[in-house]
Amino acid sequence: MIDVVVIGLGPAGLSAALKLAESGRTVKLVAKGEGGFQLSQGTVDILGYSPERVTSPLAAISGLPGGHPYVGIGADKVRDAVLWLRDTVGDELLVGDLAENYVLPTAVGAMRPTALAQPSMVAAHQASSYAVVGVRQLKDFPAELLAGNLGCQVAWVDLPARKEVDSSAHMFARAMDDPGYARRFASAVAAVAPKGAVLLLPAILGVKPGTWRRISDQLGRPIAEVPMQPPSVPGIRLHDALLAKFKAAGGRVIIGSRVVGCKTAGGRVASVTVAVAGGPRDLRASDFVFAPGGFASGAITVDSRGKISEPLFGLPLTQTDANAVVGPDYWAPHPLFEVGVETDDAGRAKYDNLYLAGDIIAGAERWREKSGEGIAVATAVRAAESIMGGRA
Ligand SMILES: Cc1cc2nc3c(=O)[nH]c(=O)nc-3n(C[C@H](O)[C@H](O)[C@H](O)COP(=O)(O)OP(=O)(O)OC[C@H]3O[C@@H](n4cnc5c(N)ncnc54)[C@H](O)[C@@H]3O)c2cc1C
Fold this sequence. Notes:
The protein is α/β, with parallel strands linked by helices. It has two domains: 2-96 and 237-390, FAD/NAD(P)-binding domain (3-Layer(bba) Sandwich); 122-226, Rossmann fold (3-Layer(aba) Sandwich). Helix content is 30%, strand content 20%. It is built from twelve helices and 15 strands. The chain has helices spanning 11-22, 36-39, 57-61, 69-73, 75-89, 143-150, 169-176, 179-192, 211-219, 233-248, 366-369, 372-390; strands spanning 2-7, 27-31, 102-105, 111-114, 130-135, 153-157, 198-202, 223-226, 252-255, 258-265, 268-276, 279-290, 301-302, 308-309, 354-356. Strands 1, 2, 9, 10, 11, 12 and 15 form a seven-stranded mixed β-sheet that branches. The chain has a four-stranded parallel β-sheet with strand order 6-5-7-8, sandwiched between helices. A hairpin with a 5-residue loop joins strand 3 (102-105) and strand 4. The longest helix has 19 residues, at 372-390. It is globular. The mean pLDDT is 95. The site of flavin-adenine dinucleotide (FAD) has 34 residues, from helix 1, strand 2, strand 10, helix 11 and helix 12.
């Protein structure tokens, strides 16, 4: 029998699965689709706003209200969990800590705080001046808008990745992993870039983590990648690295299959039912990590009468009436997004061997706080350590 089934391939599921596999557990990870890391900026937000912009996420955790997921875990354990992730992927992929947020430009020129960033991005933190480099054949990078909002110059490079006139970021990144193309790109940038300022480039500098450094070395000046719309190349880098480590640790993955049911007995989950090609299949395990996301991934649903529910395990939610937690003002806080499941100190809910991680847990408005990835990693590590501790 498998030791642990993990449901979900976002930051929470991947982190829990990797931690458990590295401890020697046999782990099977099941997901109906890709998770948040692939869709995100490739950074790890711990706490960006509370409600004002946060300088030190570690210090700000102690000021959060009682029901917040970080409070039950404690600031030190949040830090340990996030630094485990950073050190696991290595400093070619993540740098920074929880003492101070980086403040980095988005593709539209807003400045956003984040705790861990990719080394290819951090030259933009506290830079005294910027210049933007756009690529004519790259779609979805609004170089003029970015430069306009930052009040800086823009220069254009004309270098197709393939034959298309509007290639995606991923296509450019794959081309960039070829040293010959990367050299031509760096020469083209050098020919047009204004002198002096930190160069802001679209985040297309290789799917492989080290590619950006070759380009930076050839240019001989500070550059910073600016993440683009989902699926972003830096997000894919992070996701791929974690998934590869999980597989290398012996973990097995079923992607593209939804968990549609469960069998329970004596207060424990005995198995989950997965809809795979050829019909449903039961996966039995000693423990289960439930990391299916929240409203955005369909793990928590609202029906036409406004009834909120978690359909898979029927877990109790902090609120079941959507009409009570959605207001008419679009810009006002919407407590709907804080709805989720409360857990015990080990991260469990309803069943003795069901551990929760990530967006399914109640108490935070992640997208507003910029805390979703940190909560996902911290609760995933708690779940993994509870399972490891309970069976030591
Ligand atoms: C619009 C928006 C903006 C955001 N902005 C930020 C931000 O700036 N900073 C930040 O920190 N966070 C942000 N977040 C939140 C962040 O994306 C999430 O907190 C994070 O992805 C949660 O990770 P997770 O692993 O819990 O879930 P997810 O990343 O959602 O992953 C869930 C996984 O579970 C799988 N799954 C779900 N149900 C099933 C099932 N029945 N069977 C099998 N698999 C299943 C999914 O396919 C997926 O693989 C934002 C979210 C949204 C919606």
